[in-house]
């Protein structure tokens, strides 16, 4: 019985290690949020930013490339409160 428990624990540990090794694809609406996501996630995330440091999220016009980035994202980081008014139509 002890041997079975050890084998099961080892197998579960190996499966968990594989799941944790996946890099998350994160898309942020603008650069400040992208920087925060990168600092928090470190080597475990790949961050793409829709609106660069010189852009304005209020007047941003998304492209098909932006829509493709969002469709592949595991996590989307946004400010909310109407700042990214263009985001709803990209997510649909």
TrEMBL record:
It comes from the Bacteria. InterPro entries: AdhesinB, Bact_metal-bind_prot9, Lipoprotein_PsaA-like, ZnuA-like. It holds the Pfam family ZnuA. GO terms for cellular component: cell envelope. It comes from Citrobacter telavivensis. One of its GO terms (biological process) is metal ion transport. Keywords: Metal-binding, Signal, Transport. This is Metal ABC transporter substrate-binding protein. Belongs to the bacterial solute-binding protein 9 family. Residues 1-21 form the signal peptide. Its main location: other. The keyword Lipid biosynthesis does not apply. It is found in: Cell envelope. Gene3D superfamilies: Nitrogenase molybdenum iron protein domain (3.40.50.1980).
